[in-house]
Amino acid sequence: MELLKALGVAYVTISTVCFTLFLIGLFRNIRKELSGKSAESNSSEILSKMRLVYVEEVCGMYHLYDKINNSFIAQGYTEDEMWTKAEEQYPNLKFFETTKEADFAKDE
């Protein structure tokens, strides 16, 4: 009987400690989220790492341009070479291809 009481007390103690640690971690994460960056700044951070681009073939070479500001990014004799050069030049960016004629709405 004493053994069962001791096991019960140990179980309750361990359960209470684990639950307390869970709550501490939960409240730390909530506080970090509330005091951290807002959703708007997180989305602008994500968007700063992405580029909407289009490809043009000019005189047998492929040219890659930024869709939003029409700035030149890379060129190559083949599309694969062009993409490789773009990724080497901008390793932290992700490129999403579209057409030159595609319309988009830019939030101001």
Describe the 3D structure:
- The chain is an alpha+beta fold.
- It has 2 domains: about 1-35; about 45-95, no CATH class.
- Helix content is about 50%, strand content about 20%.
- The protein contains 3 helices and 4 strands; from the N terminus they run ααβββαβ.
- It has a 4-stranded mixed β-sheet with strand order 3-2-1-4.
- It is elongated and about 90 Å long.
- The model has no long low-confidence stretch (mean pLDDT about 85).
The H-and-E topology, N to C, reads as HHEEEHE
Distance between the termini: 73 Å
Number of domains: 2
The count of strands amounts to: 4
Helical proportion, percent range = 40-55%
Number of helices: 3
Poorly predicted regions: none
Describe the strand arrangement of the main beta sheet, using strand numbers. Answer: 3-2-1-4
What is the alpha-carbon Rg in Å? 27 Å
**Which of globular, elongated, flat, extended, rod-shaped describes the shape?**
elongated
| Major beta sheet summary | 4 strands, mixed
Oligomer kind: single chain
Q: State the secondary-structure class.
A: alpha+beta
What proportion strand?
15-25%
Mean of residue pLDDT?
Answer: 83
